[in-house]
Design a protein that fits this description.
Length: about 160
């Protein structure tokens, strides 16, 4: 069981990095140089919604990066529009600009192509993906309670 668990952790990490490389390749193909792959995925996850920076963080759209820095850069480069909240002057809302929406659409088309063509050639059926998603969701729930299953063994002095 431990070997399978460690393999899953390693595979999730590698898949995440490879997904970022796929996004980077698409950005390169499009000639986009002022947006990195993490920022592009944040943008894709925002889509046509308007969110606060806190909501981006809660939803996990930051993908392990500094969300405030990435939002700042995307605003500076014209991919996001940032406005102060009317109800809470301490928070800001962000939404994709027209340029940002074009990136969202391009990534959406890329993922559509993967779902329609590529996954079939890799023998990944909807059923297989649903099963993988279910297992990964359970792992996410397991990890979502920090310390719940931590070891009772104290570190060496």
């Amino acid at each position: 069981m431990k070997a399978s668990y460690l393999e899953t952790i390693s595979l999730v990490e590698r898949l995440h990095r490879q997904c970022l490389e796929v996004v980077k390749s698409e950005l390169d193909r499009m000639g986009v140089r002022d947006l990195n792959n993490v920022q592009a995925l944040i943008l894709f996850n925002i889509g046509d919604e308007e969110l606060t920076v806190g909501e981006l963080t809660q939803r996990g759209y930051y993908l392990g990066s500094n969300v405030s820095y990435n939002v700042k850069k995307m605003v500076e480069n014209g991919y996001l529009i940032q406005e102060r909240s009317l109800h809470d002057r301490r928070s800001f809302h962000v939404r994709a600009s027209e340029t940002g929406l074009k990136i969202c659409q391009a990534l959406g088309q890329l993922f559509d192509q993967h779902a329609e063509n590529g996954l079939q050639s890799a023998q990944l059926s909807d059923e297989v993906l649903r099963s993988a998603n279910e297992a990964l969701s359970r792992l996410q729930q397991f990890w979502s309670v920090p310390g719940q299953y931590s070891s009772r063994i104290s570190p060496a002095a």
